[in-house]
């Protein structure tokens, strides 16, 4: 297993740690900062594995398949927990989750046909915006500057819907069976 794939797996292993820290974060500044640090480190592994894979020509089908799944698990865990803590709007989380499940369904159908659908450019911006929305929410909500986190959440919802429509359009042949 190459280094980018190991970083992807490391990101998956960081998710339960992040979730435990985030669970206790509303009641403690320490837990809030610990959850922020673990989430930021997980986001860094996402960026790093992509950079290494492309620069060293270490792109694999495993990486193309698992990297977006690791991102989804990380971000969806954060969104669900933040919504449960009333720190993020539930409707936005539902829109984001729906897109992720729909696109994951497309990926599975394509994979059954031997096709690996790599993340599009807009999907990469979507993931970055979601990660940034989570980071801002952890730091700013609740608080006097939470509007900044809300605006970032709305931007990520827009990019999420846009990238979902893009995936459906570009891969509509899989709808025909």
UniProtKB/TrEMBL annotation:
Enzyme class: transferase
Record membrane topology: Multi-pass membrane protein
Key word ATP-binding present: no
Catalysed reactions, semicolon-separated: a CDP-1,2-diacyl-sn-glycerol + sn-glycerol 3-phosphate = a 1,2-diacyl-sn-glycero-3-phospho-(1'-sn-glycero-3'-phosphate) + CMP + H(+)
GO cellular component, one term: membrane
Subcellular location: Membrane
Keywords carried by this UniProt record: Lipid biosynthesis, Lipid metabolism, Membrane, Phospholipid biosynthesis, Phospholipid metabolism, Transferase, Transmembrane, Transmembrane helix
PROSITE patterns, per the entry: CDP_ALCOHOL_P_TRANSF
Gene3D superfamilies recorded: 1.20.120.1760
Family: Belongs to the CDP-alcohol phosphatidyltransferase class-I family.
NCBIfam families xrefs: pgsA
Primary role: This protein catalyzes the committed step to the synthesis of the acidic phospholipids.
Protein known as: CDP-diacylglycerol--glycerol-3-phosphate 3-phosphatidyltransferase
């Amino acid at each position: 297993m190459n280094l980018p794939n190991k970083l992807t797996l490391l990101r998956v292993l960081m998710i339960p740690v992040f979730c435990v820290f985030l669970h206790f974060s509303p009641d403690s500044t320490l837990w809030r900062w610990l959850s922020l640090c673990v989430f930021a480190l997980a986001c860094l592994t996402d960026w790093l594995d992509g950079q290494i894979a492309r620069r060293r020509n270490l792109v694999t089908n495993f990486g193309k398949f698992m990297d977006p799944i690791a991102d989804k698990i990380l971000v969806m865990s954060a969104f669900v927990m933040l919504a449960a803590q009333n720190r993020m709007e539930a409707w936005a989380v539902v829109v984001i989750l729906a897109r992720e499940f729909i696109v994951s369904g497309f990926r599975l159908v394509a994979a059954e046909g031997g096709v690996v659908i790599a993340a599009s450019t807009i999907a990469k911006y979507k993931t970055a915006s979601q990660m940034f929305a989570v980071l801002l929410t952890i730091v700013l909500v609740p608080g006097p500057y939470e509007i900044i986190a809300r605006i970032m959440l709305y931007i990520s919802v827009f990019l999420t819907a846009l990238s979902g429509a893009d995936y459906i359009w570009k891969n509509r042949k899989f709808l025909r069976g």
